[in-house]
Amino acid sequence: MSIFSVPTFCVITGANEGFGRATAILIAEKLAPSSTICIVDRGPWEETTKAIKQKAGYDVEVKSIDADLADEESFGETNRAIFEGVDTSRYEHAILIHQAVAAHLDRYSRDLDDLMFLQRCTMVNISGPIVMTAEFFKTFGAPGSGLRKTVVNVTSVSACIPQKTGHIFGMGKAARNQFFRVMALEESGAPSNLRILGYRPGAIDDELTRQQWTSVDPLMRADAEALSKWEGFLKPEQSAAGLIKTLGEDKYENAAIVNTYDVLGIPFPGNLSMPHRGVLKESK
Question: Pick from 184, 193, 200, 204: which is nearest to 250 by CA?
Fold first, then answer.
């Protein structure tokens, strides 16, 4: 039985563009009747909501929450808008997908002198996802109790390979990877209905790549240019399909990092020359 075949409450952050938007649309198409998909990002929402509703099955509720995930003061309000008043008895599965990200490739590490700016980035990349995950468990039950729960941490090879100007992005991904590994370890001792997936969406034609093309560092820009000419430079919909396939097959170990290229059967070239990294080799 597919994990999408039961009434599901699904939350996706960063769902108004790129990979997040594509994921929301594909999941909406899979969800069973009486499900809810809650998309969380900055608005306007009209086009994304329309696209999701066109693909969603009958009796699938679509909620859009306009949220500044970098704002500490309003984060509690965002969590309440997502989880407060949810009738958990309606659902048999709950999914939380952390896609929202702050990258900021427009400065070098030596220029990161604004504490408020760094705190806002950390809210998006680390603190916010941790607190939202805790609220997710408060709503749907701790691991081992309540309904089945799936948490997806959208990660990146940048968590383990340094790139110039990739400081905020890379450290956020690395921290989240470790956080969810620890969670998986903590919940491994008893029967659990919790599934945790780390998913690398690969090189995608999206906003983050556009940031790389305009990075302050010329080698980062050259890397992005090299990737954009590779056959593995994906449309958001292609990578999102890999995530849906991985979730549906449900064969991954908890907190494992799954690479979209493995899922889609796209060979990772050993000779992809990138000025920044030399010959790029896939990191496990």
Answer: 193
State how far the Cα of 181 lies from the Cα of 144, in Å rounded to an integer.
17
For the entire predicted model, the pTM comes to 0.92
* Token pair for 1: 């039985």
Position 18: which residue type?
G
CB 75 within 8 A of CB 129: no
**H or E element that contains 95:** strand 93-98
Residue 137 identity (one-letter amino acid)? F
Q: Which helix (H) or strand (E) holds 170?
A: helix 167-186
CA gap 216, 203 in Å, rounded: 19
- Distance, in Å, from the CA atom of 13 to the CA atom of 65, rounded to the nearest integer, reads 9
Q: Which of 39, 41, 42 is nearest to 62 (CA)?
A: 39
- The CA distance from 219 to 197, in Å, is 31
Pairing state between β 278-279 and 273-274? antiparallel
Mapping DSSP to helix (H, G, I), strand (E, B) and coil, where does residue 39 land? Answer: strand
pLDDT tens per residue, range 107-153: 999 999 999 999 999 999 999 999 999 999 999 987 777 789 999 99
Mean pLDDT check: name the lowest of 65-69, 212-216, 244-248, 273-277. 273-277
Determine contact, residues 162/236, Cβ cutoff 8 Å.
Answer: no
- C-alpha closest to that of 30 among 12, 50, 48, 52: 52
Q: Helix or strand or coil: residue 56?
A: coil
Q: What is the pLDDT of residues 168-200, one digit of tens each?
A: 999 999 999 999 999 999 988 766 789 999 999
Helices vs strands, H then E, count in the chain: 10, 9
